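Researcher: Quick sanity check before group meeting.
Model: Go ahead. Protein one:
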Amino acid sequence: MVAALVVLVGCGVPLQDRPAPIEPQSIPSRLQSPGVPSARPSAAEATVRVNFVRENRLVSLPRRVPSADLLDGVIEALTGGPTSSEQAAGVTSALPPDLSLTVVTVQGSRVGLELSGAETDRSATENVLAVGQIVLSVTALPSVDEVTFWRNGAPVEALLADGALTTEPLTAADYEALRAP
């Protein structure tokens, strides 16, 4: 107790014999209402839907991202992978750990993504799930309908859910069959 008084006196905090009233206008608004603080997200954030894998099916999960750039937020959430609690519930990612996605073009409702990172030998199932994960997540944004992929500035063939290869723009409809029921 004496040490606390010495510290308070040493810091220039005046000591009082009695409690002093606080004027209502001096109380911060967040402290004026009793109860639990609000868990509402800030206006600078938005909720997006990002797809991951559970039992070889794609599942859409919510993520909070900065509202200033939803597309970059989706890309960061995808490459960040599932949370530890999601992993404990059997959720994984089909994206290779060293994959980097960079937005290179946005033309109307079409987004072009540059893929970089080491190319690895992966199964067709892993590849189609990875592409579906990206396409379904990016096209979940209201402003995006199509996605194209590039590597080293050249178009990349992507696997469709039915196993066909294409360099055409990809849509959510191309991967709907991969969604968990």
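Researcher: Fine. The other one?
Model: Protein two, sequence then structure:
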Amino acid sequence: MTHRPRTVVVVGASGTVGSGLLDALRERREVTVRAVCRHPPEDARDGSRLTWHPLDLLAADAADRLTEVLRGAQAVVHLAWAIQPVGDASTPRSVDLDGTAAVLDATERAGVGHLVFLSSQAVYGPPPPGEPRRPVDEAWPVRAHPGSLYSRDKVAAEEMLDAFERAHPQVAVTRVRAALVVRAGSAGRMRRLFLGPAVPSVLLRALRAGRVPVLPLPSGLVLQLVHADDLGRAVAAALDRRLTGAVNVAADALGPRELAAVAGARPLPVPRPVVRAVLGLLHRLHVLGATTGWFDLAVDAPVLDTGRAHRELGWSPAVDTARAARILLDALAGPDPDDGPRPVSAPAAPGRG
């Protein structure tokens, strides 16, 4: 397939997904990339096909500055998102929704013809009571999980996209609804945000070495992951094809037995209310970063049907969920490149996360 030269702007390019996408776009010699983030990586270098543009989406002039970066580009990919409250509980919502508003404003003003938004599996919410769990495709109703701020904000962002599409039908809008994204280089950040003293490094190393015979897991847990490099390839393919609408991107789904086997253990089913109560207590004691909102989202998330990605993008994951989980475990048990004394983030308001 031959492609015309084009310019793609990636907002949030220094994050986990951004790294995978930049790798995929490097393979497309016809693509020039303008990488936008608040703090470009220390080793970031501009080149003939990649330039870095420092920009804070919460700055008063963010939309104006981003408009200038977007001028002349054929597509923009919006990846910037704050995952979990840290300190000021209002900050993530400002970054996520105000930042999205700035990207939409700049996209309109710069006349960009294709917008790709990184959405999430979380927009599907829990299945209705009494309805059997089954893989869901992109036609499944968008419904926020009431206990998860992350889910509610992703749905709110998609509602902003709905309004944008109605006002600008000439712009192709792609919503990439991804499972939890894994990359070894992001493990340090995940450890700081979601774990903490309640999950000591010695336990993670024991899990990695297969020295934990039994692994307690919530009853009925089903997990899907996607490696950042695979997700980057899917986004790049959506850019190539100017795909519109939503597309699910995930590897296969694993139950408790397969998940425990990643660490060479046997699963020990634990009732969900027990796990939730313990997690909530540890979070309130500042020894665990994960909130009950994240737990609720994890146990209620539907399995994604990725048929559209296979059919219309020619995409399939190179890394399955078991391998992605092992990559994450190995990285979590290894040294943190940013290691040092750090407090766990202060508890957020009830139901956040």
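Researcher: One line on it for the slide.
Model: The two ends are 42 Å apart (CA to CA).
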